[in-house]
Amino acid sequence: MVLNNFTGDLTVYVATDAGAPSSGDVAIADAAVDKWATPWLVDAHAVAADEVPVAVTYAAWIKSSNLTVDQQKSAILAALTQMVKRLPIGGDRVTDVDTFGYLYHDTFIVTIAGAVTAVIRATVTAPSTDTVIADGQVATLGTVTGTVTVVT
Prior knowledge:
Blueprint: E1 2-3, E2 9-14, H1 23-37, E3 43-48, E4 50-63, H2 69-86, E5 101-103, H3 105-115, E6 119-126, E7 131-133, E8 137-151
Parallel strand pairs: 2-3, 4-8
Antiparallel strand pairs: 1-2, 4-6, 5-7
């Protein structure tokens, strides 16, 4: 939500776990905001959040496992997908005074390391830094390219 203190306009950004919602879903949310959540003297509107696709390139080194490399890659992809779905509109913010939210680079590494047992090292080359997710934006998972090396 973003409130313009000068005009009294309140913008409520909406998204689904897959990214931007359909126009019909936005209309339903806008009607609900108008009916149930609009304070006096405020003009409130629900609008779709803009998608920010984030491509991921990673490498993981995993001790011997009963899973195949393809199964390990599938588990990592599933974990990355869930991680991005849980990110709030506007990204994560460490403090209340942060100007922007972020999808932190370290979050990818932690997610990959926790996706399967016995990951001994994980690197992420894309994105190479924290990704800015501003108010009104929602991260979506772009193309994922991964390399898994089994270490014996």
